[in-house]
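for the recovery benchmark. tokens below, seq after
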């Protein structure tokens, strides 16, 4: 017997990602989906590419002008994220699941941009930590978490390609920010350059986030109850903890390397600012290749094995970045590491959705990215502290490689897809 049209319409409304109705709905929403992908691209360009990857470019100036150690300049990231991540990560995920990512994203953009403006005025460690706190809060509220949820709600079969396109913003932002910063520093000095970078983030990203559309079909009360049950089930499952710990390892390896690389090149290898900018830009330029490649692979092959590939590429590139004395090998290592970096953050939400589904993605990512934020905070500080204690980056380098390989080992135990009843 045919179902009434009203019931069919209701089923389509509350199940936008399942079966042929989901595919049809996605086709209908294509114009809006294009706007969403473009907004995610620009916001990630600003919050992560310019903000997160741009700040380490200024660390050596702080060391030279204020006499701070490498451990101190990397500890701002550590202390702020150790406070922000556990307190705000899950809360942000819950708010996004309940009210949508748009408002959270706008608040994050304002905090991230304002933090860079404030960091351009600091001269004491106390104020440095204060503004770094807001930088971390801006990253949680405006960075990968809301954008991953927004994209995952709008895209189904092409989710990997959509995520890959949006995450190009991180690669392009990270590749251009060394040159943007270098040019601004030459004309205005490093502190004014940092302030201008913060203003640029707000002016570019905030208007797009303001006008972006939330995903259609808000959750019904019935789905909210079901979602709470699914969250508790995920928290009791082994794959959730394997995914969380594996993600922590890969993010630790990436962040520990990236946030110390400019310090190493400028102060240890005595590269000029232009030469250091070239290496950093090369890493993030090849991350663009990594995002496109891993997004394409994730739509065609098991996401588990794509995740393993990214971890192994990260582990392979790190030792040659810190230990090689050949410029050609250094550039090759920057390319390999960059490809792995490009796929690293992007594959995490894809794998989470693959195993646990879409309904509770925001809350699960809130926890996973919070744990990753802790690893991202501690790893650069630990690497910098090892450098201060030993006088070189050799020990820190091998620790980072070991962490990346440990992450790959853990991820190997993940299931390939969600089990259905």
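predicted aa per position
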């Amino acid at each position: 017997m045919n179902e009434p049209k009203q019931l069919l319409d209701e089923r389509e409304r509350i199940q936008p990602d399942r079966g042929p109705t989901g595919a049809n709905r996605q086709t209908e929403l294509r114009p809006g989906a294009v706007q969403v992908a473009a907004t995610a691209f620009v916001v990630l360009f600003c919050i992560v590419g310019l903000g997160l990857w741009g700040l380490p470019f200024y660390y050596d100036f702080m060391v030279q002008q204020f006499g701070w150690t490498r451990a101190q300049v990397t500890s701002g990231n550590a202390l702020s994220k150790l406070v922000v991540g556990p307190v705000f990560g899950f809360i942000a995920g819950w708010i996004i699941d309940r009210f949508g990512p748009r408002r959270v994203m706008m608040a994050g953009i304002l905090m991230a941009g304002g933090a860079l403006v404030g960091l351009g005025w600091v001269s004491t460690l106390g104020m440095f930590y204060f503004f770094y706190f807001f930088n971390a809060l801006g990253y949680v509220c405006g960075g990968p978490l809301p954008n991953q949820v927004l994209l995952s709600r709008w895209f189904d079969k092409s989710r990997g390609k959509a995520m890959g396109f949006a995450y190009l913003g991180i690669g392009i932002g990270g590749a251009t920010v060394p040159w943007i910063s270098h040019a601004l520093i030459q004309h205005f000095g490093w502190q004014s350059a940092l302030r201008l970078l913060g203003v640029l983030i707000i002016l570019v990203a905030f208007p797009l986030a303001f006008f972006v559309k939330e995903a259609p079909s808000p959750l019904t009360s019935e789905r909210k109850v079901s979602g709470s049950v699914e969250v508790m089930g995920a928290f009791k499952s082994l794959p959730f903890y394997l995914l969380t710990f594996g993600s922590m390892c890969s993010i630790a390896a990436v962040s520990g390397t990236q946030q110390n690389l400019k310090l190493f090149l400028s102060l240890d290898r005595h590269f000029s600012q232009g030469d250091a900018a070239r290496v950093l830009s090369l890493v993030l330029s090849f991350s663009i290749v990594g995002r496109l490649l891993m997004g394409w692979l994730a739509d065609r092959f098991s996401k588990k094995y794509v995740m393993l590939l990214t971890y192994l590429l990260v582990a392979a590139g790190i030792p040659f970045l810190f230990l090689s004395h050949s410029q050609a090998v250094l550039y090759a290592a920057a390319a390999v590491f960059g490809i792995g970096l490009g796929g690293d953050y992007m594959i995490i939400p894809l794998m989470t959705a693959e195993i646990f589904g879409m309904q509770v993605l925001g809350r699960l990512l809130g926890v996973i990215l919070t744990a990753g934020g802790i690893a991202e905070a501690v790893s650069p500080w630990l690497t910098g502290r090892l450098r201060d204690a030993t006088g070189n980056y050799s020990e820190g380098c091998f620790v980072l490689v070991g962490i990346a390989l440990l992450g790959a080992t853990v991820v190997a135990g993940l299931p390939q897809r969600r089990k259905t009843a």
